[in-house]
Write a structure and sequence with these properties.
Blueprint: E1 7-12, H1 18-26, E2 31-37, H2 41-50, E3 54-56, E4 68-71, H3 78-87, E5 91-95, H4 102-114, E6 119-122, H5 129-137, E7 144-150, H6 162-178, E8 184-190, E9 199-205, E10 211-217, E11 224-230, E12 235-239, E13 244-250, H7 252-256, H8 260-265, H9 270-275, H10 277-281, E14 282-288, H11 294-308, H12 316-350
Parallel strand pairs: 1-2, 1-4, 2-3, 4-5, 5-6, 7-10
Antiparallel strand pairs: 7-11, 8-9, 9-10, 11-12, 12-13, 13-14
Length: 351
């Protein structure tokens, strides 16, 4: 049996995140990192020299030499570059968000289908072992989800706000957990550091009755990333940074035995009952998820999909749904902020 031909790849955009794409791909078996492209010549050259590959400032110089692209450019460039690559028959991984514009996201998805190309969207948290463990641990339909993503001000990705920079991670996770689009979106946010929103709180309602509350802020002193899911029979929480997953479920003694109020009526001591809650009545398990690198797993899946022509777990359709929901979050936020300002102005005039 002959040796498998390596996938010829390029990374477009080798800034803070793109340089890690280049590092991983350069060391990945079955991949030939042909070149990196970045308009910053010094940055492109430094990354290329580090990984013994070529560099260009214009990706058009190397596009015909590769099979697939990892696109890690600023969001406002995603559509133009990805559309060009797809039209030229190149498989592509586009960092999240797919675009900041719904029609553009839909068009990229259509282009991928028209040209029989793999389009993967870089929603890296889907590859976080803690989130994968949380999904594997859920035994019934989610009824309530709470996600929180906080970070210090990044001084990058300032062409987008906290919704497309941070919250879209958790929007995509929630859509995956519920398997549907929200029927109602309620949001409020504030702009603190620049032209775009920096803090956002949103509530998503789903047709099955599930509610999801998502908080995002990029002006927090310390980073924090966690997600919790409640069902009718359990609560599961995942710290996406430490990768610790906590699972709480009622024991058979609670499910099949007397209710607490019946125990109290029967004369059981309340103080003694309290000591038995998390031993006899509620089973608690804390599991440490794998330390596997999520970006490496994401890039491995992309290259495997390029070879097998199978669809990735986050394809253009999934990426577009996240963008559509993010757009509704922004619309609701703008509406609520306008109403809040109008109410405040009315109160001032009345005074």
């Amino acid at each position: 049996m002959g040796q498998v031909k390596p996938i010829r790849m390029a990374v477009i955009g080798v800034g803070a995140l793109g340089r890690h794409h280049a590092r991983i791909l350069a060391g990945m078996q079955g991949v030939d990192l042909v070149a990196v492209a970045d308009p910053n010549a010094a940055q492109a050259q430094a990354v290329a020299e580090q990984h013994q590959t070529d560099w260009v400032t214009d990706y058009n110089e190397i596009i015909d030499q590769v099979d697939a692209i990892s696109l890690v450019a600023p969001t406002f460039l995603h559509y133009e570059i990805a559309a060009d690559c797809l039209a030229r028959g190149k498989d592509i991984l586009v960092e999240k968000p797919l675009t900041a514009d719904v029609p553009q996201a839909q068009k990229l998805t259509e282009l991928a289908l028209d040209h029989d190309c793999i389009l993967q969207v870089g929603h890296i948290e889907r590859f976080n072992p803690a989130f994968e463990l949380l999904c594997d641990s859920i035994t019934s339909v989610p009824r309530y989800i709470r996600a929180e993503r906080l970070s210090p001000f990044p001084f990058r990705s300032l062409d987008i706000g906290a919704v497309h920079d941070l919250m879209i991670h958790d929007i995509e996770l929630v859509l995956h957990l519920t398997g549907s689009m929200p029927t109602l979106v309620e949001s409020f946010g504030s702009r603190l550091m620049g032209a775009h929103e920096d803090t956002v709180q949103t509530r998503l309602h789903f047709s099955g009755g599930c509610i999801a509350d998502i908080t995002a802020s990029r002006v927090n002193p310390e980073p924090r990333r966690n997600i919790s899911v409640w069902t009718n029979t359990e609560s599961i929480s995942a710290d996406l940074q430490t990768r610790s997953v906590s699972i709480h479920r009622p024991t058979s003694a609670l499910l099949n035995g007397p209710a607490m109020e019946d125990r109290m009526r029967a004369g059981e001591d309340v103080t003694e009952l309290k000591t038995r809650v998390f031993s006899e009545f509620i089973e608690t398990e804390t599991v440490q998820a794998s330390a596997e690198d999520a970006l490496t797993a994401e890039l491995q899946e992309f290259t495997e999909c390029v070879r097998s022509r199978q669809q990735p777990r986050v394809d253009g359709k999934e990426g577009t749904m996240a963008v559509q929901t993010a757009e509704r979050v922004l619309q609701s936020m703008l509406k609520n902020c306008v109403n809040h300002r109008a109410k405040a102005a009315g109160e001032v005039r009345a005074a």
